[in-house]
Amino acid sequence: MATMLEEPKVTKELALVLGLTEEEYAKIWQILGREPNYTELGIYSVMWSEHCSYKNSKKWLKRLPREGNRLLVKAGEENAGVLDIGDGLVVVFKIESHNHPSAVEPFQGAATGLGGIIRDIFTMGARPILGMNSLRFGSLDKVQNQNYLRGVVGGIAHYGNCIGIPTIGGEIYFDDFYEGNPLVNAFCLGLMRKEDLIRGSASGVGNPVYYVGAATGRDGLGGASFASRELTDASGEDRPAVQVGDPFMEKLLLEACLELNRSGAIVGMQDMGAAGLTCSTCETASRGHSGIEIDLAKVPRRETGMIPFEVMLSESQERMLVIAKKGKEKVVEDIFAKWDLHSVKLGEVKEGNLMRVLENGKVVAQIPAKSLTDEAPEYERESAEPQYLKKMRELNLDRIPEPNDFNQTLLRLLDTPTIASKAWIYEQYDHMVRTDTVFLPGHDAALVRLKGTRKGIAISTDCNGLYCYLDPCEGAKIAVAETARNVVCSGAKPLAITNCLNFGNPMKPEIFWQFRKTIQGISEACEALGTPVTGGNVSFYNENPQGAIYPTPTIGMVGILEDIDDRIPSFFQREGDCIYLVGDTADELGGSQYMLTVHGFRAAKPPTLDLKKELALHKFILDCAKSKLLSSCHDLSEGGFAVALTECLLDPFKGTLGARVELGLTSGVRTDSLLFGEGQSRAIVSVAKGKNGKLESKARANGVPCRLIGEVTRTGLKINHWVDLSSELLEQTYRGAIPRRMELGESWAVKE
Amino acid sequence: MIVFPGSNCDTDCWHVLRDVLNIQVDFVWHKETNVGGVDLVVLPGGFSYGDYLRTGAIARFSPVMQAVQEHARQGRAVIGICNGFQVLLETGLLPGAMLRNRSLRFVCKHIYVKTENVTSLFTNRLKHGEILKIPIAHGEGNYFCDEQTLETLEQNNRIAFRYCSEQGTLGDEFNPNGSLAHIAGILNERGNILGMMPHPERSSESMLGSGDGRKIWESILSAANV
Fold first, then answer.
1. DSSP alpha helix (H) spans, A627-670
2. Cα B166 to Cα B164: distance, rounded to the nearest angstrom
3. What 3-state class would DSSP assign to A712?
4. Has residue B226 got a pLDDT over 70?
5. Among B12, B52, B110, beta carbon nearest to A433
6. What is the pLDDT of residues A631-657, one digit of tens each?
């Protein structure tokens, strides 16, 4: 039996230890009009942590475009964004980080990250129908990062596969800047009928407040505060702050909560995620403009001797707070009994504005609910342009020699884990359960059908952190444009985004400058593309002893296909089809994977994005999709034209093809730029012979450059006299890059 | 359609039977003790009871499995897919056991299986040696049994499907989980119970990339109509 902790005496020093500042401690005194007790201090420390309060970012987040006629709730108002997709249906989606937990315990950190985002979706009444993830690690040639990858992928697979929600796509980058501070961003999307939307709100005085799901233990204690600090060599000692997930429990909770929603017995629901019982009680009360009272003695526990501080701050997984309708208690209890889950009445909604926490009838905390949420501190942090940028811009690309052998360069890029096939990863995820996955992983965007309708939903997550490092505003714009382009290339219309903003320590002016520029870039791109921000998450303090990660604003774009038969695959479909390059190619090598991998430079300006050109490209492709003109469409991204063309040949499902192309020389553009430059707003499309005229006239009508460059062949890749490789070698290299490293461990790196 | 807590392919199978094949199908909760006089019981894939202890190990004790055994004793059809196959092994309705995949990783992808038995009620619409493209998704699909059992299975034509290449070649490189004798699915002695790791419900509609799994459902239908 665990011994009962003795509550320490409340002092200013203790407040600092818990992560509060002196001013914040004074503000608590002022709000309460007295000294807070230990439980109250704990409650403030987690609710005012960056993780829960967004105190350093809120002011800037408000500048993001958050309006649109399809949005049913405003960003930040509820647990996730809600988007009307017509026919009485809505989708609910969000992306969230679990970086710090994954850094100290990759398997459980990633698993519970997914578990948390899934709860955010079904807490609103929607059935989660798919997951995606966006991951960043240090170089895969290092054993530590191989272990991170193995753990994180294993954790996501463990949780997602068991709960029966397909993980249908995502993206991964490997770069030294993520060494020791991997990023694990999990995306989930749910579907429901519009009238089934539940709010995370506690209203109606006298309505009972229920605790449902798993029992409470000491796991995840102070997780929100832990996530609001930099990682250090001693972060391993924070391992108890990482929660442990039970996907089977969550599957039961999911089914029970959806059944509960259909019963009409509840007024609100909120999952216990970061800051657990604390956050769910004060947030529901705050949203409902009510008071709330709970008694901790009734909380189901799996450990003895827990003090109120621990019960309130525990982040044990798979728990929910349910605000039921008075008189419907039996309905709630029967549903949870059917699923063999706890359901305990903890208290009820009260008049006024107080969150009152009792233990066995004795008050242990009494705090105005809104002082923890809407009225939490907000700061404007200092911002200054980083020193490194000046140095970066000085690099003269003219002094970089072109390679002698483009075949070798292409193979080298295909062997780069960031570019290579991710089959080793996605084959560990059940990506087909629910039988809606129409595009298997490997396509530009993930695509699911919605049974009973003609519609499809396309999703893409992306962010090139290196671009953002070199130019945060342009990089953020590109991240939005790239995800939109991926969605468009599958034939779907982009609707809205969710974002996960991963940065270093915001108290450092250079980091905050990156953050501000990023918000500006996202705003510009979202406004131009008509895709508002529905919500998301900010993760600061992503630093290791060597410094901050790249600014990494991961974007999750959701798009719709009104008719799933208009979808366009990313891969060439048949020999003899004509290949076109759509968009302009300029001399842009800065920030490319080619510069990084072959020349070892993280420098110069990243590609520039012209939002007008980007929009024209989208209109053109969607126009082609509607008339089912294209055999395939694939966007150009990391690795540029040569890598994109190779990818078009390597359909993992139907087998490989070949291509013979002749690129016209553009004056002033280097050959390596033509082949490997990452200029934006471009795509490779293929059409059946005889449809050329129609394609070219549509391109003209939309003002998009579109050049016939060659044809699809049975096998082999030929690009001018520069590249001549067999499809087998391309495939082996592309598919082998990650498995080889994962199977050989360190000996791989030595061989290099 | 049996539903255990943790089943997650139940609605997928239900969708195929009801919407694709127009068959009446009902869900039966694990606490039920009766499956009624149905023609076919489906034990769907998923993680019954979280697959704690061992895959399918707890499901065998659920009340509904008594009813399923009685149903099988009467000679009526039972198909166990993925976790359903694991439950059939744990219950003893089929011989053998599942080990973890040779790679020690969960694996989800399309693979090929070769039809070895074309006389059973699950395979009568298939030709001998017919190759099906069909997905798998499991962490423990490495079938194992003792030599004597394997000999009995081989001799009595009870191996329904084996993993193979696109052309039908057998070999370790085409076996996704290390399964003994490349076994992907087996029948009981009477031929009214089939357990298989691949998911026919995920390959019953052309939009999902393969319609090959549909032939298994159609075989069952044609047998039931006779």
1. 640-649
2. 7
3. strand
4. no
5. B12
6. 999 999 999 999 999 999 999 999 999
Range of the domain at B95: 2-225
Q: Could A427 and B6 be called an inter-chain contact, meaning their C-beta atoms sit closer than 8 Å? A: no
What number is the ipTM of this complex? 0.96
Set of chain A residues whose Cβ sits within 8 Å of the Cβ of B49: 248
- B207: DSSP letter: G
Question: Does B6 contact A246 at a Cβ distance shorter than 8 Å?
Answer: no
Query: Contact, A688 vs A630, CB < 8 A?
Result: no
In this structure, what are the phi and psi dihedrals at residue A469, rounded to the nearest 5 degrees? -65, -40
What the block records as the tokens of A473 is 């505003």
End-to-end CA separation in angstroms for chain B: 22
Task: Please state, in angstroms and rounded to a whole number, the distance separating the CA atoms of residues A48 and A315.
Answer: 16
The Cα–Cα gap between A647 and A735 comes to 11
Is residue A98 part of the annotated active site? The answer reads yes
Total structural domains within chain B: 1
B107–A437 C-beta distance less than 8 A? no
Lowest mean pLDDT among A543-547, A559-563, A663-667, B125-129: A663-667
Tell me how close the Cα of A464 comes to any Cα of chain B, in angstroms: 28
Check CB contact of B209 with chain A, cutoff 8 Å: yes
Measured between CB atoms, does B104 come within 8 Å of chain A?
no
Out of B9, B13, B71, B82, pick the active-site residue: B82
CATH number of domain containing B78 = 3.40.50.880
Name every chain A residue with its beta carbon within 8 A of the beta carbon of B48: none
Pairwise CB contact (< 8 Å): B105 & A434: no
pLDDT at A749: 45
Counting Cα atoms < 13 Å in the Cβ hemisphere of A567 gives 26
Residue of B nearest to A156 (CA): B106
Tokens of residue A170, six digits: 């995502």
Question: Is A251 touching B (CB cutoff 8 A)?
Answer: yes
Helices of type H across A457-504: 465-470, 472-489
8 A C-beta contact, residue A84 and residue A130: no
d(C-alpha A169, C-alpha A270), whole Å: 27
Residues of A in contact with B16 (CB under 8 A): 435
* pLDDT given at position A394: 78
Cβ neighbours for B195, distance < 8 A, ≥ 6 positions apart: B79, B80, B84, B85, B88, B89, B94, B185, B186
A334 Cβ under 8 Å from any chain B Cβ: no
Percentage, residues of chain A above pLDDT 90: 86
Q: Which residues in chain A touch residue B176, judged by CB atoms under 8 angstroms apart?
A: none
pLDDT number for residue A240: 63
Alpha-carbon torsion angle B82, B83, B84, B88, nearest 10: 110
CA angle A429/A435/A441 to nearest 5° reads: 45
What pLDDT shows up at residue A697?
97
CB atoms within 10 A of CB B97: 17
Regarding beta strands A717-719 and A658-661, do their DSSP bridges make them parallel or antiparallel, or are they unpaired? parallel
Domains of chain A: 1-66+199-374 (3.90.650.10), 569-752 (3.90.650.10)
Which sign, positive or negative, has the C-alpha torsion A464, A467, A472, A478?
A: negative
Active-site residue flag, B173: no
Question: What is the C-alpha separation between B11 and A436, in angstroms, rounded?
Answer: 12
Could you read off the pLDDT of A106-129 as tens digits, one per residue? 999 999 999 999 999 999 999 999
A247 touches chain B (CB under 8 A): yes
Nearest to B135 among A161, A248, A432 (CB): A432
